[in-house]
Write a structure and sequence with these properties.
Low-confidence stretches: none
Number of domains: 1
Distance between the termini: 29 Å
Radius of gyration: 14 Å
Structural class: alpha/beta
Number of strands: 4
Number of helices: 6
Largest sheet: 4 strands, parallel
Strand order of the largest sheet: 2-1-3-4
């Protein structure tokens, strides 16, 4: 059994992890994958929704594609999460757009560093 799944958390937080995509899909997808794996190895109270994996890898979108057709689906995910997380050093127009929506509907917003340091709403 995976060490991470062997521990039982008191509460699970559903987290939307916003990260740039269109500038370089392969590179940014790998960056967020490394971060996601690291945080899931450290904490057992998080369920990550990463748009790169939920949408982009399924559809194999080309570089520069801004995915307007799936924007409504991304908003629907943001409505349902407990935490919206982003990296302030890696902000794109898409990240800004998603973060503005999360703020507008009252979803708690944390940086990836805060979440990695154990901060919760």
């Amino acid at each position: 059994m995976c060490r991470q799944t062997a521990r039982k958390p008191k509460k699970l937080y559903l987290v939307y992890a916003s990260y740039p995509y269109s500038e370089d899909p392969a590179k940014t997808t790998e960056e967020i994958r490394v971060w996601a794996r690291g945080i899931l190895e450290k904490f057992n109270d998080l369920v990550l929704l990463v748009p790169h994996f939920v949408f982009d890898s399924v559809w194999d979108l080309p570089a520069g594609y801004t995915h307007p057709e799936i924007a409504v689906q991304e908003l629907e995910l943001i409505k349902r999460v407990d935490i919206f997380v982003y990296n302030p050093k890696r902000i794109s127009s898409g990240v800004r757009w998603e973060m503005a929506y999360a703020e507008h509907i009252g979803v708690p917003i944390l940086t990836m560093e805060e979440l990695s340091n154990g901060k919760r709403p």
